[in-house]
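Quick log. Single chain, no ligands specified.
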Amino acid sequence: MAKRKKQQKPDDGLRKRTVENPAWEPAREGEKAFPRFIEATVNTRESATETLFSRGLLGEAQKKAADHFRALWEKAGGKSASLDYSADRVDGGKGDPLVTKLTAAFELQRCRNLLGQRGYENVEAVCGEGKALTELTPHKRERLTMADNLRADLDDLATMWGLQTRRNRAA
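-> predicted structure:
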């Protein structure tokens, strides 16, 4: 008699995660209707860093640093980070978009100075462009090294932005 194989559910990439409630206010502390943390469904395939985080390869501070880098990278214009000074500026209500773009570009320059060329390109490819490590290199050994370097670079960025304190590394 043949053994039956267990049917595995297809991985749809959705996971439950406890996140901070965006509607929470300190004045409503203790009310059951407005808890500080709620369960939310998260798409783990939304970005490469989200996938790494859901697999336990990135910590909380590293994930926050990756998200912060991505936000800056998108504000600065991504790969096409050029400024159009001749464009007509229209009042959109939320500050000056040119100033926002310049501020993000200067912050990315700080990241490049901290991480160096190779580290910055690694973080930019994974966190900014959303490329998976398998897209960057086909070799397992290089992917493992790249993942280690990515975690170290995200630790440095998290420390620079005050998202974590520098850990004492035992030798």
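The mean pLDDT is 83.
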